[in-house]
Write a structure and sequence with these properties.
The protein is α+β, with helices and mostly antiparallel strands. The protein is built from 3 helices and 6 strands. The chain has a 6-stranded antiparallel beta barrel. A hairpin with a 2-residue loop joins strand 3 and strand 4. The termini are far apart.
């Protein structure tokens, strides 16, 4: 986790837990850090910014184009993914209202992969063990 590098008063993305009656407006996030990535590039993209992150090889298998990923506690949609990392588009509101306003190229970020991807892998592994 990158939390140890933060100083008192630094920004941090924290959201209240969803209630069972709330509408799910993003993807399921548990708050567990699966690994560290890095900010490789930030470029303007129309009225947004395109951010490229590096990710550990063992996590890239769970990251899919148009799928979800949590970066530093923020649920995001993946625009592109390859063998070294992935890209997302951040609108000005997201940048201004999250830790991304203070994040720069070269910074480390916490990554949480999509919870559904973990369950799919587990289910498929179980089927393979049963010979299905």
């Amino acid at each position: 986790t990158t939390l140890g590098a933060l100083a008192v008063g630094d920004a941090l993305n924290v959201e209240r837990a969803m209630r069972p009656t709330d509408r799910l407006g993003g993807h399921l996030v548990s708050g567990h850090v699966d690994g560290l990535g890095g900010v490789e590039r930030i470029e303007p993209d129309a009225r947004a910014q395109r951010w490229r992150f590096t990710a550990p090889t063992h996590l890239l298998r769970y990251i899919a184009k148009k799928g979800s990923i949590c970066v530093d506690g923020v649920s995001l949609t993946v625009n592109e993914v390859d063998d070294a990392g992935f890209e997302v588009a951040l609108i000005p509101h997201t940048v201004a209202n999250t830790r991304f306003a203070h994040t720069q190229v070269g910074d480390a970020v916490n990554l949480e992969i999509d919870l559904v991807a973990r369950y799919v892998e587990r289910l498929l592994a179980g089927r393979a063990q049963q010979g299905e």
